[in-house]
Amino acid sequence: MVRKRRKTIGTQSPQSTLKKKRSASSASSAFDSSAHAYAEFLKPYDPAVRKLADGLRALVRSEVAPCRETIYDAGYTVALHYGIVPQITEAFCYISVHRKHVNLGFHRGSLLPDPDRHLLGDGAWMRHIQVKSPADLERPELRAFLRAACAEADHLPAPGPKATVLSIVKRRRSGKPPRR
User: Fold this and answer.
1) Domain-wise residue ranges, the chain
2) Handedness of CA 98, 101, 104, 108 (dihedral sign)
3) Number of C-alpha atoms within 13 angstroms, CB side, residue 92?
4) What is the pLDDT of residues 25-65, one digit of tens each?
5) What is the dihedral sign for C-alpha 19, 24, 27, 28?
């Protein structure tokens, strides 16, 4: 029995169209769910702090993309970690949201050049900068430290329309309400 082949020049089979629609909708729903989870995590905070968190998140994503963003509610803070791989321990920077301010932190901050002593913290590795007002988001050292952290982690950002940030949401395991 000889079967005739369908010519597919310029057209797509219904199966391939359906597969594309499914993958597009699942990617869209993944984005929607991470955006929704991020918004839900920030609900307990004042609008001014939420605005700072959104502004700092946009700044970080513009400087370090492409990368992975892990969002989770740690109980005492909402944290967003940025790295090349999904493991938080391998992240090169993070944002933590607090009651009155937002921190931009660096996992290996003690290795970053800081001649003007902008970075806070005295631990062996981690350092951070507090962002308390919208004017703080314009501080040039924020972008400089992000670039230095990327370089220290051997991450080459490629900002632009094709630079994506894959967001991963980690949910709290316990049924305890967050402490804030």
Assistant:
1) 18-170
2) negative
3) 26
4) 344 444 468 889 999 999 999 999 999 999 999 999 999 99
5) negative
